[in-house]
Write a structure and sequence with these properties.
The chain is mostly helical and 80 residues long. The protein has 4 helices and no strands.
């Protein structure tokens, strides 16, 4: 168990160094780097910490377009 933790810490530090080397990387670039480390066997939760990505950002794609309620097509005119 101790060997696994030490190996995981080493991989985590390599990941942190790689993310810091690409200073202003986009979310997609960080996800690509992250997925390569996850394939090596590091846990997702452990790998997300140094990347600055939360689980929601990792697992869900961002929506394109406006968010919120659509504009009403019909309006009621009030008569005075």
């Amino acid at each position: 168990m101790l060997k696994i933790n030490i190996a995981e810490k080493e991989i985590e530090s390599k990941l942190r160094d790689e993310i810091l080397a690409k200073n202003d990387s986009s979310l997609e670039e960080r996800k690509a780097i992250l997925s390569s480390y996850i394939l090596q066997g590091i846990f997702v939760g452990t790998a997300l910490r140094p990347c600055g990505i939360n689980k929601h950002q990792y697992y869900h794609k961002t929506k394109i377009g406006k968010s919120g309620v659509k504009k009403a097509k019909r309006h009621i005119k009030l008569l005075d």
